[in-house]
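FAQ

Q: What does a record look like?
A: Structure on top, sequence underneath. For example:
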């Protein structure tokens, strides 16, 4: 069975481009984003890794560590990193797991045999400080992910964790958020001093609390 929301993210020890990593120990109390790539020296992955590296300062601001995976060995990742820097202008600045025996890929169900029985799909797992999985996402090999969207999701996850709010469709930083149904109107009045508007009894919006 795959890894589901709310599960403890499976722990593992693996070789990476930055040495051996034991996942839970490495992430500590931070957030973490673990994302897989089908294979080294592939075009879409090359662009994705440059995009991810460019956004590392933004993930860091959110206390989120980044770690990538591809089912090739670390020595191959190191050679590929030169191309990534050449093409995108960004050096890969986070560990890339080498997983030639597919231990981590299988642990996280990153191989979908009806898509390919050798390559990993483009999986993303965002893991919270409590080591529980907060987001999973799966893209096919031919579609590059939007790392700005992953930052947006992380902002939403962190708002939910910190303030008991949810974010509406297409929400962006600074826009109103939704008070989760589990919070009563009475509690909402004290918890959200900027006030709230009940568009429906179950749809109460309030200004973003941390702005
Ligand atoms: C790519 O990363 O470009 C890619 C990998 C496998 C299949 C198709 C595209």
């Amino acid at each position: 069975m795959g890894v589901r929301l709310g599960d403890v993210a499976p722990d593992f020890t693996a070789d990476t481009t930055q040495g051996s990593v034991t996942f839970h120990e490495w992430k500590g109390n931070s957030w973490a984003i673990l994302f897989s790539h089908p294979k080294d020296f592939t075009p879409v992955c090359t662009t994705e890794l440059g995009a991810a590296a460019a956004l590392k300062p933004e993930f860091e601001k959110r206390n989120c560590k980044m770690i990538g995976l591809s089912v090739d060995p670390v020595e191959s990742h190191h050679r590929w990193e030169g191309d990534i820097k050449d093409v995108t202008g960004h050096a890969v600045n986070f560990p890339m797991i080498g997983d030639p025996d597919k231990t981590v890929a299988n642990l996280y169900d990153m191989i979908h045999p009806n898509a390919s029985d050798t390559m990993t799909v483009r999986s993303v797992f965002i893991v919270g400080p409590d080591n529980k999985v907060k987001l999973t996402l799966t893209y096919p090999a031919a579609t590059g992910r939007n790392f700005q969207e992953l930052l947006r999701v992380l902002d939403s996850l962190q708002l939910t964790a910190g303030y008991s709010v949810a974010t509406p469709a297409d929400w962006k930083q600074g826009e109103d958020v939704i008070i989760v149904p589990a919070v009563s109107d009475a509690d909402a009045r004290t918890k959200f001093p900027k006030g709230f508007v009940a568009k429906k009894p179950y749809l109460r919006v309030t200004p973003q609390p941390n702005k």
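Q: Is there anything notable about this one?
A: The helical segments are 23-27, 43-54, 56-61, 74-88, 103-107, 147-163, 185-191.
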